[in-house]
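Standup notes
- DV: blocked on the single-chain target, sequence here:
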Amino acid sequence: MYYSDDIVEEVLRSNNIVDVVGTYVHLTKRGANHFGLCPFHSEKTASFSVSERKQIFYCFGCHAGGNAATFLMKYENCSFQEALQRLAERAGMKLPEPSYDEEQQKKRDRRARLLEINKETAVYYYKLLRSPTGRKGMAYLTERGLSPDTIKQFGLGYADGARSDLVAHLRSCGYTDEEILDAGVAAHDEKRGLHDKFWNRVIFPIQDINRRVIGFGGRVMGDGKPKYLNSPETDIFNKRRNLYGLHLARRSRKDRFILCEGYMDVIAMHQAGFSEAVASLGTAFTSEQAVLLKRYASDILLAYDSDGAGTQAALRNIRILDEAGMQARVIRMDPCKDPDEFIRKFGAEAFEERIREARNSFFFALDIERDRYDMSDPARKTQFEQEAARRLTGFEDEIERENYIRATADRYHISYDVLRAAVAGYGRIRRPEASSRSGGREDQPEPQPVPAQPGTAAERPPERRGTAAQRREAALERNEQLLLTALSDEPSLLQRAERYIGPEDFREGIGRQCAERLWERLRQGRGEQAAAAVIASFEEESSQETAAAMFSRHLGEELDQRERERALADIMTAVLTASVERERTAMTEGRGSLMKLTTQKKRLDDLKKQAGNRRS
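- DV (later): unblocked, structure below
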């Protein structure tokens, strides 16, 4: 770890995860936990749970999970070290100098080198734009109406690339060919070897929210193809999780974002005073980017091209934003093609007026749908009104749905009573939402522990082996999770449990590692926030999420003490039975130990006998 376990645990203890997460997500207490809409995936029903007792979070929809540090890592797209530093500052603590193991140091050094290369590349292109070689690029930017200050603010540059001059420059700075290639600023083929990726292009450096250069976009001068070229994804550049201009827009102090199609639209809008403008990075807008925007504002304005492609992109993105729980409005660009052209032609005040007139996304989409029908034809008009009624069922809040029904009736000259009845009819037959949207809620019954079934796959009918094996694995995973959660909730249970079962009885993988680390802590009497500490002991974010899942099952608060003891005995029996079966299989394959198997069976028999006594 970057910091010792004691330091990590002290920082986590000094921060209540409910307070940390609550600054980003609206949480409502339900039972023992707090729930809210997950900030890491799009959902309309809260499946995101925060446990104050265990100091962990877990989403039953997308399975994101971890402790307070993990949450900041995912939400702020930062490293574990950066997350811990923020938590320490929040608690008024001063962290000691971090230490690194060899593998961590290599990863850290690699990321640092890639960031250095990108920064050096940005500076090189910036200077080249202002040299005689960059005259063509500077002329293009000037013709597009950009001021020297704007060009400087966005760090715009120019790539010549004719002689792979960037590669030569980076080599002279001491970077290896492998590092230059991995940074995404060069390409390689058999004919040319390592060569500049960008040539004869105006360069748009792409910065993350911490203002670090992580990639580049390049606009070709002339009619070359492709018109725009972007850096490939690297260890520091993920197109789906970043937005162009966000490092500036998030500081605009406005409660909205304007989502554009391209780099030039963003730059032109910032120059005109609309510093809340952002754009996706050469790819279609993604749900990850919607979640990223939601961190800072919930009101999104779409400023897309007025052509057919722009309209389709707007419709697609409205759906993505809606699924993320965000309000979207659409800015009219006519008679111009895009925001850049509109602002240059009519000015910032006219564009501000268009913002005030921006169309509600529901009616924008419904207007486009209406244009597909001949409204003078009763049959076609009926089809449109049926489609409008069907779409109105998408509003789950009754007050909001009622308001939209009235507005739709007025807007499209439909009888209110008829439309309301149609909406009610569609609502009755509408299919329920997927269970993942509401899975894992505290007020839903938790599945009962399922004992592992004895016997081997060969003893069951061939056509059911695969399905039965999957069911057994799912049941065993659930039981292991229930056992770990119960022990972390009530550390005093370990003294009774470890007479029969130990970490070696868990399946290999994250589950067994969690058991080993939990057992160690509880034996040392360090049961406080044990789950959060065990999660923190894993280095990889994916491992932390898997570990969080291991501590997110509950026996059910409605059970009394006697019922909980019976359930725990059933769970331990299931886990130990599966362990015995694994050892028996290993014996038949010449890998197992007769002594271990005998010991396990003795423990299992004792456990079953003890469980039977409790029931009598």
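- Follow-up: The longest strand covers residues 213-220.
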